[in-house]
Amino acid sequence: MNDRNHLDHVALTHEVKIIENGLLEITMLAILDPDGNIYPGATAPDIDKALAEKIYHTMVYTRLLDERMVAAQRQGRISFYLASTGEEAAAVASAAALSENDMIMSQYREQGALAFRGYTTDQFMNQMFSNRLDPNKGRQMPIHYGDKALNFMTISSPLGTQIPQAAGYAYGQKLAGKDAVTICYFGEGAASEGDFHAGVNMAAVLNCPVIFFCRNNGYAISTPAAEQFAGDGIASRGIGYGVRTIRVDGNDPLAVYSATKQARAMALETNQPVLIEAMTYRLAAHSTSDDPSGYRSKNEEDKWRLKDPLTRFKQWLLSKAWLDEAATEQFMQQTRSDILAALKTSEQVAVNPLADIVEDVYAEVPWHLKEQRDALIAHVKKYPSKYPKTSGDL
Amino acid sequence: MNDRNHLDHVALTHEVKIIENGLLEITMLAILDPDGNIYPGATAPDIDKALAEKIYHTMVYTRLLDERMVAAQRQGRISFYLASTGEEAAAVASAAALSENDMIMSQYREQGALAFRGYTTDQFMNQMFSNRLDPNKGRQMPIHYGDKALNFMTISSPLGTQIPQAAGYAYGQKLAGKDAVTICYFGEGAASEGDFHAGVNMAAVLNCPVIFFCRNNGYAISTPAAEQFAGDGIASRGIGYGVRTIRVDGNDPLAVYSATKQARAMALETNQPVLIEAMTYRLAAHSTSDDPSGYRSKNEEDKWRLKDPLTRFKQWLLSKAWLDEAATEQFMQQTRSDILAALKTSEQVAVNPLADIVEDVYAEVPWHLKEQRDALIAHVKKYPSKYPKTSGDL
Amino acid sequence: MAKLNLLQAINQALITAMTEDEKAVVFGEDVGYFGGVFRATSNLQEKFGKARCFNTPLTEQGIIGFANGLASQGSTPIAEIQFGDYIFPAFDQIVNETAKFRYRSGGQFTCGSLTIRTPYGGGISGGLYHSQSPEAFFSHVPGLKVVVPRDPYQAKGLLLAAIRDDNPVLFMEPKRLYRASVCDVPEEDYTIPLGKAEVVQEGNDITLLAWGAQVETIKKAADMALEDGVSCEIIDLRSILPWDAQTVAESVMKTGRLLINHEAPITSGFGSEIAARIQEQCFLYLEAPIIRVCGLDTPYPLAHEKEYMPDEFKTYEAIKRALNY
Amino acid sequence: MAKLNLLQAINQALITAMTEDEKAVVFGEDVGYFGGVFRATSNLQEKFGKARCFNTPLTEQGIIGFANGLASQGSTPIAEIQFGDYIFPAFDQIVNETAKFRYRSGGQFTCGSLTIRTPYGGGISGGLYHSQSPEAFFSHVPGLKVVVPRDPYQAKGLLLAAIRDDNPVLFMEPKRLYRASVCDVPEEDYTIPLGKAEVVQEGNDITLLAWGAQVETIKKAADMALEDGVSCEIIDLRSILPWDAQTVAESVMKTGRLLINHEAPITSGFGSEIAARIQEQCFLYLEAPIIRVCGLDTPYPLAHEKEYMPDEFKTYEAIKRALNY
Ligand SMILES: Cc1ncc(C[n+]2csc(CCOP(=O)(O)OP(=O)(O)O)c2C)c(N)n1
Ligand SMILES: Cc1ncc(C[n+]2csc(CCOP(=O)(O)OP(=O)(O)O)c2C)c(N)n1
Ligand SMILES: [Mg+2]
Ligand SMILES: [Mg+2]
User: Fold this and answer.
1) Coil, strand, or helix at residue B38?
2) Could you read off the pLDDT of D147-157 as tens digits, one per residue?
3) Dehydrogenase E1 component domain spans which residues (chains A, B) (predicted)?
4) Facing B16 at nearest CB: one of A205, A216, A262
5) Which range of residues forms the domain containing residue A290?
6) Domain spanning D196-322, CATH class
7) Which residues on chain C are in Cβ contact (under 8 Å) with D288?
């Protein structure tokens, strides 16, 4: 796609005509309608029953996990949570279209993708309780998951930073001759960051096999999309970068799956980025620290509840006779009790020992951090009751 | 233009079709052909003889100034210079389309715009010799002009920073009810900075009457446009931001003038930004520190020399019988000798007194800078021969 | 005079500033209709209209770039960065632009009317990206002023002074005090001078110095030390840049000892500048080395937050070390 | 062994690194075909192909973001920021990402293989945007290493060590020495350990400490002082983070006096950390306050560059002050 530059390709005009809005009309790929029927003229992707079930179960799992953890936060058992309710299809169905070798670099609302990869309930819990069983060692707030074994990059809070990183990661995959791409998730809010611009442009110029997957859910905390950008969403920007682009109904698992599948094939084949804009809606509050009634109407939320990806997909599965309702009910009950059990276990697990406080800052602990660690250990030994989480170990 | 957001306007499609290159075909406004004839079907803007002459003389002046100062740098009289040769039309004709109340925030290759505003040869020289007559007080390298009286913002070296600033400046003009816009110049290289993204997007969302004027001259130092972006230049990005956009032949003063005139009217009327991409070519070296033969061919340069805006405009003036060749010759001679005379005078003028070293860091000199200044003055008095520029004054 | 928390005091200062100065404009992520994620800008859009209090797109570099331009035009921008941890994308606009605008133009153009507000600091289970104390970075930037209030009274008076000051000011709000700190705040307009430290408690044996939320910590440590008969002088620095070296030096010349407490990592934290200056200025008066009780040289942890913090126990121990040197 | 200038030494180190490590990739603005505006990356594209040495678009935040991703994938990125003054748009990627990558993931993912090269410093009539010395900012960032060579020999050895070090390293090149500093540089591969200062000259009366181009300055001052019979110990710090406090402390315990010289503004420059630490560690050995001879607390000027610089005359005067304290 980077055959365009400077002047060679440009046609002349002699009339002063400033391009106004409307030059671009980016349509939205929709395969499954809100009632779960395939749109006339649309083709369902090549998904077998097992995959369909896995997608559905993962979406259901994610919803249940979200529900439980929001409640756990209200009970004061964890400090923070961030639900993906209403947006499960975007994360789950896109992850389903990838290979396990593909790297996932997510924002923070893509727990569905992680669940699809096989992250266990225990793993979720260990991260959220910052306990010593989490390979991220309890250093970040809840929901900042990461698992190298699953090719899921540890999440970072500063928005947009993973976008140029994904370009670089994909470039490395290409150099190393890996048969893999990187997918980079982000919100339409994060797409306002300078890092978005830098990352997408660099990926296009440097031919990086990366899928930029924007969840446009209409809000960045309280800020509606209309106060975030004036163009035709995020998709229209892709054109500006010379990046292949597609907009999909983010609440339609089949559309998301189809688009991502094709995007992955293209990225791998051409060593070039593809931008996907998934139109969805954050039915949840931004996070457990947020109350959306301060900035949007119940009415608007209700409208979107009708587009729920779970119901929609369920209807489709039913229409294919791929859904055993009793088994699903059983799955849901089992999931609920598994989550609760894991929660109860994980919250009992201790945090890492005190000495860990200086680990992983550098590859090896340098002299000054050893000095600081030793002084701290001596101090905690002197005041054990003031540092109950770690003094017991000393 | 910010009536587009999230989902309301989006049409559906049911076919997985990733948008590839080619959706956008942004044409280029051209009014004057390289031989100085009006293109068939094109209309020359409403420019009278006086204005046409002023534009021409300013372009000629700029070229002569550039030539002389490049030579002065080679002679070791100034440390640095940066010529706009070949790109004069972009800066001069756009400035000609503005009102004097409009704020100009430039990159560094728009000396033509400044000359058009009436910056004198003495002013140019005082800045370049960092002497005490320059209101910028000799603090920056040569070519970082600035003049509040002429509504020309002092130039800053870090690229792209003026882009969001221009949005803010224009917002302020609007709030204050000023009948004025801001024009913001930058190169196609600078448009890769995150600040470009932030600035253009903010201007669009916050309805700022600003003209973003990109000089796409094909190079950022040694980096060709093809290694800078993969899209259809900078113009295609405007669409992505929902910003009115036009591409012009930057070597065609009439096209640049017409586009800028209309952009200004639109920006003022709608309180919204307009993006202009002027396609041009840097015939000069990047700066006096650069040698373009290290990265591009003579042949390419020669091709572009044929599109020289000065010859082209001269032909047009001749065709209108608006050019007195003898008078022009006389103007050029006078200009050359004025520049030389000013150069000779300015290089003799002393730099600011030593005490100035701590001024303008804050509105008033704080205690610690007074302390540092006093110590420095005492020191220089002790070693006058080591600080010949300032010790004489003490 | 009403009891206000720190957020309410800031909100009141903003209302005062916007009422008095028509050119004052408040913006940032979520500050508009919603009133900010901490609600510091509540009701401003309602009161002053959308043109003067608005959401920006999610771009810190854009927010400060826009603010710089707006300030140079003559308005009085009051920009919010949602968390101090997210001020770094704007670092170039602040360091290379805001701070150098006046200098490079010989005073023709300035960002002097700009105020940047941002919550900072730990103690809220925020982990490494919702807890940082970045004041030291900005203390190395000539052209900026950096101010940190310790309670609602200070917050209102210092914020009003910052907004009216003819220099760009970074106003850092200790977010763990947002709701926790409550005190009497006069309804009326008042300012507290920038660049002046406050001697919060007089004492003879050692000077304890902190700013923001850590002033509370050194107070607690001083109370513990008092039980041992140690009399601590407590100084709230209030301004980080330019800072009030004179008040600190005078105190140290009296007490002969100095302890500095801050949350940020010790290495190249602002404590290092204070120590470097004071050891020079008070060399012959010092009876013990200047001690810094600070955050560790690690990112800010979550699970080990309590252990990481330079709390009153660590401070108390350091006081004893200084006294027994 | 050939005489090389600093640029040539760097170029040679890059060739060595890229030859030995297939995963080493060099990129930045203009570093490709052209070989960089200073020509430090000359011929690399020719030798190693465009995939391993290439131009990037003009975006420092993008360069470092890209580099972080590339490093975490397993390559060995060597990214160039064209001027130290333009590193600030990348500040967030460096401070919040590069430096915290390993820590936040419990060591699962790291940017340890990343090296960032950037020219810094004044003395080249560069004015406020081509002269800055930003090392102090980065010295406050746990997780980074910061290294500064003083001559071609050091440059090659330290750069090779930086590239191979399993931590992200910011490698700052004193650009006024690029062509001015010439010395013997072994053809073969060698490294100089990071984190170790070098005692460049032994002496008894005072320790002079600097890094990069200012080492030359303190040497000149030491020569002036020698004429007065003052014996200076000269230390090149070489690594700013982590820094070699032990070598400095040992020297100061011997000489009883310490002078630190750096170009950056004095307030919160890295000299403050050194002074703060050394006054604590060497309190009972100090015969005079630790003195800092540094840049003024202003942006870097053009017309007054000579006056601004912490040159040998200012240093010499400060030595006398310390000796006569
Ligand atoms: C650099 C940065 N600035 C601000 C924030 C605070 N913040 C966290 S989430 C958020 C909104 C993000 O919106 P969007 O990208 O649309 O994602 P969504 O929450 O809708 O999934 C903000 C402003 C942050 N984390 N990082
Ligand atoms: C932030 C920043 N990065 C790098 C530079 C160094 N630099 C100066 S000019 C330039 C190229 C600019 O190219 P372009 O924007 O196309 O403008 P042109 O020189 O072609 O007019 C570069 C990389 C800078 N001044 N600022
Ligand atoms: Mg969103
Ligand atoms: Mg260019």
Assistant:
1) strand
2) 999 999 999 99
3) 57-349
4) A262
5) 24-348
6) alpha beta
7) 283
